[in-house]
Specification:
Blueprint (H helix, E strand, L loop, with lengths): L4 H19 L1 H9 L6 E5 L2 E4 L4 E4 L2 H4 L8 H13 L10 H13 L6 E5 L2 H16 L3 E5 L8 H6 L16 E4 L4 H7 L4 E7 L1 E2 L5 E2 L4 H12 L2 E5 L14 H4 L5 E4 L11 E5 L1 H8 L14 H16 L2 H22 L4 E7 L2 E6 L2 H13 L2 E2 L1 E2 L6 E4 L7 H29 L1
Parallel strand pairs: 3-15, 5-6, 5-7, 7-10, 10-11
Antiparallel strand pairs: 1-2, 2-3, 4-12, 8-9, 11-12, 13-14, 14-17, 16-17
The protein binds pyridoxal-5'-phosphate (PLP).
The site of pyridoxal-5'-phosphate has 15 residues, from helix 6.
Amino acid sequence: MILDEAAVEQLSEQTVDKYRKYVNPGIAGILSFSGFSVPEDHAAGCYIWDASGRKFLDCVGGYGAFSLGHLNPKVVGAVKQQLEKEALKSHFFMSTTLADACELLASVLPGDIEYSFICNSGTEAVEGALKCARVLTGRPEFIGAINGFHGKSFGSLSVSGRDVYKQGFEPLLPETRHVPFGDADALADVISERTAAVILEVVQGEAGVNIAPGDYFSKVREICDANGSLLILDEVRTGFGRTGKMFASEHYGVQPDIVTMAKALGGGVMPVGAFSSTERVWDAMFGKNPYLHSTTFGGNPLACAAIIAAIKTTIEQGLVERSRALGERLLSGLRDVHKKYPWLVKEVRGMGLLAGIEFAEEDIAALVIAGCGRRDLLAAYSLNNPKVVRIEPPLIITESELDTAISRISEAIEETGAMIEAIGSDCE
Ligand code: PLP
């Protein structure tokens, strides 16, 4: 239902007030200041409507959760159908939806990764993966990458690589180290017989879409093998076609020991995560005690119905290939923008429909995000590198919608440049 102007104003004020009192005053402040005080109302496909009826092209895509767009009809249909039968697990019987979801996952996961544990979020997936590595190796240490992002619960925060989110929460997991992403020699220098696992994103997302050299992951694999350490690849953001392959690890031909997933796995309808691994790892984790790691809500029938529909839809609609082809179009469009504004844009990089525009300063990135918002386009902030604006549209975006996104981004950059020039000339 679209509201009139007075009703929108009232709803916005009430919501900001409730955020201030009951949710998070800081978020209320940031969103109001950036011009997003009207709450969201509904969403479909590549669009989100706010309560005033204003329609935004969504290039944040739920930070990767909306690969299939909002309310994808196949996923919604599957979840609704399941809801007629049963929502959550009894935990007494076996579940066919869980068995089918794990079988389907095994069919798309790389190499001999067959077993999956379904949980509810990315951070839970990472916690499970870290526990697997500890129990199999009996070793204490984890190595992650500087600026890597794996979530904000204690284990995932420990292996993430930005200190600002750790302050005040120490002690975190002991014996965690961080090395520069993309530098295999740096990893070789610190790994030892104490290292349970190396955990890496395949493309660093929150660090600002960092792409490693082509031989990096094969070297990492060798280094892990030589030291008896496991390799955990975090595909929470990059899984299910985002980078133009079903899993980003396929770009590098590397075989991980454990894969973590979430976001697009739930088809943009259910909050879902998973960690998956081999028989060897599963035997160490669940061989002696099948309840060594467990969850009340994870793997519930609604979530599994969403997983099955999401994976099938991704394959049937050729979204992995689509992401590859449209990713090239997006990068080439953004590179043209870079050429036009070289003093503002430092670099454009990406893989599939995961692109980053690195600006000279954090403030420029923030102004461009606000400028995109004024043009009804949503673009993403990067938590671990705020100089980078990320463009992560649903994989179902059309060519013309993508072109619209590129031209709105270009206009927002042009406007930001003009503002900076005007401020500069005022100060002279
Ligand atoms: N791992 C990666 C690579 C992520 O990008 C994220 C979230 O952005 C997470 C883990 C944590 O996922 P969640 O927010 O579902 O806990």
